[in-house]
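Project channel, design review

CF: Before we commit to the Corynebacterium terpenotabidum Y-11 constructs, I'd like one complete example in the thread so the newer folks can see what an input/output pair looks like. Taking alcohol dehydrogenase.
RD: sounds good, go ahead.
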Amino acid sequence: MKAWNFTGTHQPFTKVEVEQPTPGPGQILIEMKAAGLCHSDVGILEDEKWLDIMDLPAIPGHEIAGVVAAVGDDATGYSVGDRVCVWPMGTAGKAYGYGRGGGWGEYVVADIDDVIRIPEGVPFELAAAATDAGMTSFGAVMEAGKLQKGEKVGIIGFGGLGQIGARIAFLSGAEVYVAEVNEAVWDAALATGATKVVKDIRELSDIGLTLIVDFAGFGTTTAGAIEAVGYEGRVVQIGMGKLEATINTYPLIMKHVNLVGNTGGSREAIAKVLEFMASGDISPAIELTDFDGIPEGIDRLHRGEVRGRLVALY
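CF: and here is what came back for alcohol dehydrogenase:
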């Protein structure tokens, strides 16, 4: 089968022909229909820290949606032709596209416990986005952030994740504020239910934000969140724009700020986001490319040219 290979940091993705995988006991084979492209896929090209969780060479692609092509022994509950997506974290402890084969190939094997059925009416490209952008956003706002109805929430970054996180917070009864440097998406942020949009989260220091979720993660955004959040507020760090940050510990200490790092979310988070998508309550901005366009898509992500989430349709 055709696949994109990752061989190491600072090395380009290469198209290769590899043997089609076969599902073992408790596994299914998925014919890929859509695979998301993520800023993490930019990160593996640039930062050696990612190599700690990768087995090389690797087929990247952790946002997986497709059709069941074969079912292994003891893999019950799904049949050939079912529309499914995959929880990227993996119950086996190895994330798809990192510690095990991902979706940037024509087929991928998934453990049955990692599979989620795609609801009727949800297209493959949205389902792919739900597996990471949706899961991570829900995990940040609701699971790590422990959002309660009526809270004032700050969302930093209105990209592929932030747009979903802001919408989840609004649908969950929060008063939502967005910090986003790109004014071109401000109207879209307001349309999700945001009360106000600013360039820097520090501009919201007088609002009394109880929770801030940093979907950007460029260091200065983390520092700004600590300074802007209210007394005994929570800051959830999700974005990995930079893997190091300098923060002012004085407000962290004096305001009793709870700073929490989080990656991903639960399998249930994906199912909940898919429900929101099926009802039409969540409909994130999606840009499409194809299988051959994956490397150029990653370049576009790196240059900041993608609005929303970028998904390759096969």
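RD: helpful, thanks. The chain has a mean pLDDT of 93.
CF: The first helix runs from residue 39 to 46.
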